[in-house]
Amino acid sequence: SNRDVAMKIKEAMEAAKSRNMAQSTVLLDEVGPHLGNRTSLVYSVGRLLMSIGRNSDARRMVESAIKLHPDDSDLVRAREKLIS
Questions:
Q1: Rg (CA), the chain
Q2: Torsion sign over Cα 16, 2, 59, 25
């Protein structure tokens, strides 16, 4: 559900802030396949990926999402902020 995904992202962010990169990575990997059409979360997940050193994963996620939803304003902003 949307709530479950949002909670996992929040937990991953808290783990990253605590410098617990292993826990953050595990949580992100659980969430990733379940984003679906939740394009508003792509920026947050991408930012978090970058904070744990997974820049190429963040770039790949944003570019893949843009291919599926080229006119989505959330994704356009995510690309501008994360990749540009």
A1: 12
A2: positive
pTM for the whole structure = 0.80
Q: Do 77 and 43 form a contact (C-beta atoms < 8 A)?
A: yes
Alpha-carbon span 2 to 20, nearest angstrom: 24
In contact, 84 and 77? CB cutoff 8 Å? no
CB count in 10 Å sphere of residue 66: 18
What is the C-alpha separation between 64 and 58, in angstroms, rounded? Answer: 10
User: Helix H segments across the chain?
Assistant: 2-17, 21-31, 42-51, 55-68, 73-82
pLDDT at 3: 83
Per residue in 39-51, pLDDT (tens digit) is 888 898 899 889 8
